[in-house]
Amino acid sequence: MVSPEAFNRVLAQRVALNRAILQNKYWRLPFDNRGHEAFTPVGRGVKASVFCGKHLGVVVCKSREGHEGIVINGVDCSKKVVVRHKHMWCHRPTCPVCFIRGWSVRGARSIVGRLDVGVERGFGKVEHVLVSVHPDDYNLPEKVFRKKSRLALAVRGVEGGCMIFHGFRIDRLRGCLVWSPHYHSLSFIEGGFDRCRDCVHVREDCSTCSGFKGREVREYKKDKYIVTVFDERETIFGTSFYQLHHASVKVSFLSRFMSFTWFGKCANRKYASVKAKSEDVCPACSEEMKRCVYVGNRFIAKNIGDVDYKAWFTDDEFDEDGKPNYVSVHDMHAYGREFG
Question: Which stretches of the chain drop beneath a pLDDT of 70?
């Protein structure tokens, strides 16, 4: 692990490129990968290109009636239009500029697309499952304990899905990320998990049960891999995105390492990936947002490293003279004002 002084210099450089790094403790903590130097949390590399984060414009939702009474993270959207910035992303997991809204977003859309097909094929409900590598296996090659983790899922009735690799966990005593490999899986469980989720029995009663927890108790005695199913997720995309933007990656130039892989019924050989639609959706009303040009007079920060930058924000649809602040790119010919 680097010295505190060196880490603070690197952190300052990363924040200058992407101020969103300050919003998540995981993104800004130092990490200790001694003995596992080939691995790093995503977003800890160098900027991949001068085009990374380049501002491309804005998309706007003008459905003000749908925003009435909606408050998101303290922002009241009532009587306002919602504006989101568009940028150019390189989609590399190590890039400190693009790993959040580039690589993670594209990966989450890919996961949603394939799992949606699984739901259509009758595989059941998508569950969020965690499988933790046993400490005795921490020093094994990743491909080995990935195989063992996949087997641990299979024998417990997890029939297929994706596995997202996390090599590190937060050590709160040391205030850093430490090596503790595990996988977050969005997957389908044989017979579903609702039976166990709604069960009121104590764990000791599970050993003879045919449900998921019964299989988990019996198989843990054999492989010592802890497999846990989380509460019902709100959205597949939200869970996928969150798990991807603090996943881990192998940085060896000789390896084509994949931070998330598919297995079982959702394996690559079963069907090709089907990506979800990539249209921009309003965070307030879920309506599709439209490409617009800002023609108003206020300053709007466009650089994601700027202290005033906001990935999305609310604004007045019209200025004090009653002229629109945001004009559709298709209607620009009707307006003569210059814009920045």
Answer: 1-2, 202-204, 253-255, 272-279, 331-340
Neighbours of 336 (CB within 10 A): 7
Q: Do 155 and 253 lie in a common domain?
A: yes
Q: Which range marks the domain in which residue 74 is found?
A: 60-86+289-334
Please count the structural domains in the chain: 2
Assigned token pair, 91: 């989609």
What's the pLDDT score for residue 204? 66
State the residue for tokens 């019209």: 318
Q: Are residues 158 and 194 in the same domain?
A: yes
DSSP 281: B
In a domain, 109, yes or no: yes
Q: Do residues 316 and 62 touch, judged by C-beta distance below 8 A?
A: no
How far apart (Å, rounded) are the C-alpha atoms in residues 49 and 291? 25
Q: Which two tokens stand for residue 13?
A: 């450089």
**pLDDT tens-digit series, residues 231-243:** 988 889 999 999 9
Is the same domain home to 173 and 76?
Answer: no
Number of residues written out for the chain: 340
